[in-house]
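Final report, Chapter 2: Outcomes

The project's central promise was a pipeline that accepts a single protein chain and returns its three-dimensional structure in a standardized token representation, suitable for archiving and comparison. That pipeline is now operational. To close this chapter, we reproduce one record exactly as it appears in the project archive, with the input sequence first and the structure output second.
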Amino acid sequence: MLLLFINFSSLLSARKDKYKKWLNEEVYWIITPEEKEVFKKLKSDKEREKFIALFWAKRDPTALTEKNEFKDGYYSRLNYVNLKSGKDKGWKTDASKIIIIFGLPKEKRTKPETWIYNPISYLNIKDEFQIVFDTARDKRLILNKKLTSKVTFDAMDNYASRTIFNPQLKEIPKYIKKFMLDPQSLEGKIIEKASTEEHEHKDIPFDFALHFTKALKGNTHITLVYFLNQEEAGIDKGVLFGRIKAEDGTFEDFKKKIEAKKEDYFVYADFPALPKKYEFYFGLRDEKSDRYSVSKKEIEVPNFWKSELELGNLVLTDKVEMITPGFRDTSAFNFGQYFAYPKKEMVFKKMDNLNILYQIYNPKTENKKVKLGEEIFLKKEGRTYKLPERPLEREVPEGQVIVFGFPLPLLSVEPGEYELLIKITDKISNQVVEKKVKVVVVE
């Protein structure tokens, strides 16, 4: 009985030491004071494990995937400094703190010891910077506060808060597993041939368009739209499929079954991706005849997570419907309470409303409020229609996407080819963004 008691006590002690080490050593430089106080008040190991999992999920730049690149990099740097030999060479030293926060320098200079770093966007460091050390008698490096760049201290002071990429998370996210086409399936064979042999094939006529919207931190949502004429395409049931392949060879596949109807002229697939360059292979297969088309396009997925004001997905349409309760859609055509039907060609009749819908990212806030101005111009040679500026001033949670929408009646607009200009002004930061689209108005 005594032996069992000792083993159980040892187990409890080990657990206690584990969480104490996590709090006081492993995340010492990265945990916020508020998080530290919350963690200290937790009563059970289950609560502590959930806290730790959510702690790292909030710091995951790719929150839709199970892999947490930031956490892996952080522990890699922590292990690196702890493996250094010599007295007091662990995570507490000035040099170790710098490595844990900024990583290893791209260049080192001597007399005095100076470390050079490239810009680090998530720490709000936009230019190359340097960190200068003095050398103590025991050869330890001590930070020289006078010669070191000011941005270094700002980044160190705000490191804990600036690395919380997903502050809105309240629960541990359900990760999206990487999808791969079955290599033995017809879709898998078509995509493999297309991506290795630059194979393109056109049995089924369709047009396509790409739309990009902001996803969770670090990701951009891609909506791929196929515009179909059912009679020309000659399909009732089909399969959308494809592969998005990065320069490093990593890839993600997608597959979606569809039913084409006479009144439907578009179908779409949507999925998240990191902002970078890709080779994009996408196809459509007829389930009955196995006829297919496959095409390739090189794309660059935009990054909507910069600090600058961004004007995101823009949809011009003559058909907008209220979304019914329970409707779930993550595409670029979901605008809160409304679903906007995409158009293949920007041609509108005078009897139509030209519905303009778009999203605004990264507006500045003042007293938790945004202050935006919207201007819309419809221009052609010798004629300009300008709508009155619409101001938007309201309280908005930090990081929330702003959705704008406006129905523009065309009855008083002369037929012709126009340039539609949308201009958004952030009254707080004085940043201005705009987008232009060619539209045609007909009788």
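Archive annotation: The mean pLDDT is 85.
This record, like all others produced under the grant, will remain available to the consortium after the project formally closes.
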